[in-house]
Amino acid sequence: MGVPKKKTTSTKIRQRQHANSKIEAPAMVECAHCHKLTQPHHVCASCGYYKDRHEVEVVVKEHKKQMRGR
Ligand SMILES: [Zn+2]
Q1: How far is ligand 1, taken at its centre, from the CA of residue 17, in Å?
Q2: Residues 6+ apart with CB under 8 A from 52
Q3: Residue 22 C-alpha to ligand 1 middle, in angstroms?
Q4: Which residues of the chain are under the pLDDT cut of 70?
């Protein structure tokens, strides 16, 4: 049986594992309420609807602007 001559270094293991990984864009579907692109099984970020129900109130980011003005 073939026996490896040298120990596989941690760098080589990391390189091999990294070669098989990549970041993918999330799957997007059209929102049934506002027809903007949103992630499936998530509350819509622009209108706050999920499955024809108003789940969350979308808050406009006013707080950041106020903090910057000071
Ligand atoms: Zn929506």
Answers
A1: 38
A2: 32, 33
A3: 29
A4: 60-67, 69-70
